[in-house]
Amino acid sequence: MTTLSPQPPASEPVTLALPFSAESAAVARHRLRDWLHGHGAGGDHLDDARLVLSELVGNAVRHARPLSDDTLRVEWDHHDAGLDIAVTDGGSVSSPERLDAAVSDLAGRGLAIVDTLASRWWVEATRSRTTVHALVELS
């Protein structure tokens, strides 16, 4: 089951509780696109933000555990510095880190893409959850 909040005003963050599955990336991208369009963002910035969100959701599903209710949490909020995108999962035995994947590698580029498109990214972790944030400039 997908829990979606109503279309927020510009000053309110969005929080989505999504199933812990790869398909949730598409749901999150669609909602982010609609939200950004509703707030006048478009073009390359919109595409960058959607790609960053997809990579963060994909990494959570591939490398972590779900939250205790079998979901992952996706959030975003616009600040003066840009769009803060965050994905929270149930944690993992390892911490998210950028890898330098070779051209021939089939995986390992997710956080390298995030690192390229975001002005910065960081991890907040406890024993029971990990949140990866990425700050994407919209101007």
TrEMBL record:
Gene3D superfamilies assigned to the protein according to its UniProt record, in alphabetical order: Histidine kinase-like ATPase, C-terminal domain (3.30.565.10)
Sequence ranges assigned to domain Histidine kinase/HSP90-like ATPase in this UniProt record: 19-132
Record flagged with keyword Metal-binding: no
GO molecular function terms listed in the Swiss-Prot or TrEMBL record: protein serine/threonine kinase activity
Keywords: Kinase, Serine/threonine-protein kinase, Transferase
A Pfam short name: HATPase_c_2
InterPro entries membership: Anti-sigma-factor_SerPK (IPR050267), HATPase_C_sf (IPR036890), HATPase_dom (IPR003594)
Kinase among keywords: yes
Top-rank taxon, per record: Bacteria
Cross-referenced PANTHER family: ANTI-SIGMA-F FACTOR RSBW, ANTI-SIGMA-F FACTOR RSBW-RELATED
Protein name per UniProt: Anti-sigma regulatory factor (Ser/Thr protein kinase)
Organism the protein comes from: Nocardioides aurantiacus
